[in-house]
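Students often ask why inverse folding is considered easier than folding. One informal answer: many sequences map to the same fold, so there is more than one right answer. In these notes we will look at a single instance of the problem. The structure comes first.
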């Protein structure tokens, strides 16, 4: 797993999402991608790249990313059960998820949003899927690809 450590500085200073659990959320999200690789989900999405138009591919990528957020929530669920979560930890993760939603980032960068270009999901979606994982605590509940609502 590779994490650009300067992103943590950005998370704290530019995105105003400080805290150890904000950082843990980022790691858990990346581990979520590893789980997706083990399950073959990442490969399925990446194979679409040459088969569908960019908007459809972006939509599939959003599902992959929201599932990684869900898996991060599953991890957080088990950390809580093991007694490792401090008061405020969950909010640190949600603040981070909120800060790096596509709509929030695009609004900050250019003052408007282009939903077709989203690759990670909105702030609301990222928070919600993390929370879903945190609530459920199981991999099975995170099928963003067949969810009625993303
Ligand atoms: Zn990701």
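Output (designed amino acids):
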């Amino acid at each position: 797993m590779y994490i650009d450590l300067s992103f943590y500085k950005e998370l704290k200073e530019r995105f105003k999402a400080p805290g150890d659990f904000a950082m843990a959320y980022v790691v858990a999200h990346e581990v979520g991608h590893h789980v997706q690789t083990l399950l073959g989900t990442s490969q399925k999405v990446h194979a679409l790249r040459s088969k569908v138009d960019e908007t459809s591919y972006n939509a599939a990528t959003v599902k992959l990313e929201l599932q990684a957020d869900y898996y991060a929530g599953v991890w957080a669920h088990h950390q809580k059960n093991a007694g490792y979560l401090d008061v405020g930890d969950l909010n640190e993760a949600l603040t981070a998820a909120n800060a790096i939603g596509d709509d929030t980032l695009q609004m900050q960068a250019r003052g408007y949003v282009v939903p077709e270009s989203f690759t990670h999901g909105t702030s609301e979606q990222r928070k919600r899927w993390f929370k879903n994982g945190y609530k459920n605590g199981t991999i099975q509940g995170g099928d963003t690809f067949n969810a009625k609502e993303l």
